[in-house]
């Protein structure tokens, strides 16, 4: 299964070979800097032109990288900094995740100018939004590309700090308090990660995943280090029961930041966890069962909390906990099951990750629009909202189709694959978790819609939502919906040479 | 892939209308009406072309891969076309009716948008070529009917919507489990590849029985088989065109159609018989038929009486299927069409009484035949058809059911048939008696509850003509049962396909 | 390097960390923390990691200390009359029961870690023993304290413990990788502390304003 990660590739230490990947990493940073310098709200012509140029450059680099991978299989680079060597690699999966990151970040960044102008006004530290988004994108890309634990650690830390920074931007009391909590948890999580890495380094004297996969032997050292690594990562991924920090953080953050966080940041930690387990303990079935059970509990508990939530944003935030549970269920089907099950679960897990990212980002943006246009942050406040049939409600609905996992959405196809894997592996409790999760998610989504269809409510005074805010919410939601029909395309990437299950 | 565009275009006629309707302003009444009618007419035309082509021996297929081993497949066969024909025809009528019914009421844009989505799902169900595609549109149907059920937006409608969702989403989930499990066992089953399951051998019979029951459970919810029928009477709060649509074609029929597909095209009638599942189906159908009729008898309001009558009538289809032998099959299939025609007529008429005279209770109908002769004639035709009197279409269904029972050596089914016909007569004849023979407000006795004069005729023309048309069709389907392209002819065509290996 | 000095250094680190984590006077605790960082730098020096020692001195002692004092608003403290020190004091008293309860998770981690370390070859040096002590102490304090600044201190202590263990395990096999990890870790710890310190200061100010607002509102109503 480790070959699906594309780690066993000849590393090239030519600087010229790594130019493309450096470009992919640097462009988001540059774009963030440019946007901070020439703020899009005020000087949009200048920043628009420069940003478009940079964007074209970045996408071109990504495209060329994709071509290389699809033609020649996975690529790997050795970045040498004095005696220190960093291992980077890219295969189909990396490509898929890179693409996903770019799409979601771009949508959230492009949503931001209108949002800041109309909703936030002058408050908060607005200039920092884009640079931090750039850092976040780069750090995520680093995580997807990393082939050794040091790079992973750097990426993880950078991502955590950028995420905390983004959460703090509104500058209000609640945002600061939630941000502080998040900061402490993120720091503790990374300490656990570092301790695990220290044990691995002490045990086998190297940090590159390919080498560790060959050398690492089962024993207390491996188990303790994997336990520490997993604990740190699952804390950052808001996996049940380490999820309590998630909702307060979202309820006070800016909408594009929430979207970015729920869609990508928690996924970064999840990806690292999957990768480490596949590399280090591919046969630890019992432990994977435990993780799966946690996932099942997350599905249920997150669903119940989302259902009981009073505020609209809390519904969306708790649903993230529940949806991450699906990912953990998929995770447990990868470890210690047969190759046929793992192959299906592999595709199901990544499809679920992509579908959830798009749907959740779209849903957060749509929620932001609903709150903006009605001025109500409570679910009950939406009473009668469907009379105007605002586009945002439609975007919310489309995104929620994917969250519930109804066809033809990406969430549905992913659930199909996960069900398939669970049935084939004979993990019957997982079926129950998937079933109850579906019903619960339907319950919390339709609770929102139920209010929106109330006819005898007092008329709300609507504010017009700027078109760009509507547009990007809709685009992301539609992408999550259509992903279900064209699921074969992203999955073809997974099966690119050097990554085929 | 010959002429793949035709089924796709049929789907697209209603699917593409949806975004257009949503983007039109609420006040654009003319454009919306033109669009709806145009699309409905075009669809009838396209289906007619496919029927013609099928008789010429053409085959239409369209497929693409969703994920490995799972295909989206449109495949046109006689059974599917029968259903598509029924739905496109009744849709034309219902669109006309809905335009009249909803005149000057709020939220028409929302209504017609989801209405078209609902048509699209039904067409998708009809043309689906495998269980995955069927499931996809089956769930889409649930989603698109919810806004129609809660359209009125008062507490009762919202509660009915919630109940509806609880039943149908759970049913859909159960169906999903069955379909995935079947997929794990044998892979993608295209409708008509009956030998795939039959070839599995006796070892698999236990599992196949269980899967059949699971899928029957999922489909039975929408088909309103007792005891899964609870949502149907409550969904009566929806506007009359929606009730007509839910009962005659869309939801209930989708369930019944799914059972037909399951028995004939997935398991094959031979295997189902071998597994002893036909007897089970017969028992369920009998219970539902008698229970629905008895409950209908107890209703004091017109629409709930029709609702329970639907529960009972739809199970004739299931009863027909469960009678092993060509006559039983013909009976089941032909009733799929006949029941749709007759029931839709009855609902139009009930809607007309409610709109024009404000009548909801049966005892308010005294003498309405004089005030609204055309509507009452249509109602009479529909009711007599339901009882099974010649020459209305219902007679053909019951005649073939009786022959099927003799052929399958299940004479007790005839007793059920007679009993239920007597019950039908018991709950419809009093209504007819009141309509025509009792003295009411139009004879100067008392007053109509809420009389309005909606048109130059007895009520608005938009409301009259659809009812007259469907009543005429029900009459013709009985009178001209022997001519080509009649429902009976189509059903015989399908049956011939089924029983000749 | 005589073993006596090793033991002394390890002891000094743990003792200073204990003082920093248990002092309820926050300014004094921060001062203890700076002293602790210096002792860590000395330990790095004593085992031959000169660069790490300098970095620890710069990032750990100087900058982290500066941010911590900034969080406390040290200038105001200096000019405040002795009687108004309550602001710079953690008001939550320490009870034995709580302290013991919070010890359990720390012990669990320590035992787990000890099992793993036991399986790795190598003699327990000052780094390993000191590191274990610091991790246990820090975890306990982190679980125990509610005050944000004290949790930040605890986080820094745990981090230092991990760095020590890391370098002890690496030995001279892959020093570059070890250095890379520790330097990243130090930078992250500094950034985290800086962010936390700024936040604490902001929160204090906002909180103070809110209390003032409430008082104002109450007075006007009366």
Automatic annotation (TrEMBL), chain A:
Transmembrane segments: 20-38, 50-70, 90-116, 128-146, 152-170, 182-201, 221-247, 259-280, 286-306, 326-346, 358-379, 391-407, 427-446, 467-487
A cellular component term, taken from the record's GO annotations: plasma membrane
Primary residence: membrane
Domain NADH:quinone oxidoreductase/Mrp antiporter transmembrane: 146-439
A Pfam family it matches: Proton_antipo_M
InterPro entries on file: CPA3_Na-H_Antiporter_D (IPR050586), ND/Mrp_TM (IPR001750)
Keywords in alphabetical order: Cell membrane, Membrane, Transmembrane, Transmembrane helix, Ubiquinone
Record localization: Cell membrane; Membrane
PANTHER family reported for this sequence: NA(+)_H(+) ANTIPORTER SUBUNIT D1, NADH DEHYDROGENASE
Family statement drawn from the similarity comment of this UniProt entry: Belongs to the CPA3 antiporters (TC 2.A.63) subunit D family.
Name by which UniProt lists this protein: NADH-ubiquinone oxidoreductase
Source organism of the structure: Billgrantia kenyensis
From TrEMBL, chain B:
Primary location: membrane
Transmembrane regions listed in the UniProt entry: 6-22, 34-55, 78-99, 111-138, 164-186, 207-232, 244-263, 275-294, 314-336, 377-400, 412-433, 462-483
Residue span(s) of domain NADH-Ubiquinone oxidoreductase (complex I) chain 5 N-terminal: 70-112
Entry superkingdom: Bacteria
Pfam families: Proton_antipo_M, Proton_antipo_N
Compartment list: Endomembrane system; Membrane
One annotated Gene Ontology cellular component of this protein: membrane
InterPro entries per UniProt: CPA3_Na-H_Antiporter_A (IPR050616), ND/Mrp_TM (IPR001750), Proton_antipo_N (IPR001516)
NADH:quinone oxidoreductase/Mrp antiporter transmembrane domain boundaries: 128-422
Membrane topology: Multi-pass membrane protein
Keywords (A to Z) from UniProt: Membrane, Transmembrane, Transmembrane helix
PANTHER family per the UniProt record, alphabetical: NA(+)/H(+) ANTIPORTER SUBUNIT, NA(+)_H(+) ANTIPORTER SUBUNIT A
Listed name of the protein: Monovalent cation/H+ antiporter subunit D family protein
Source species of the chain: Billgrantia kenyensis
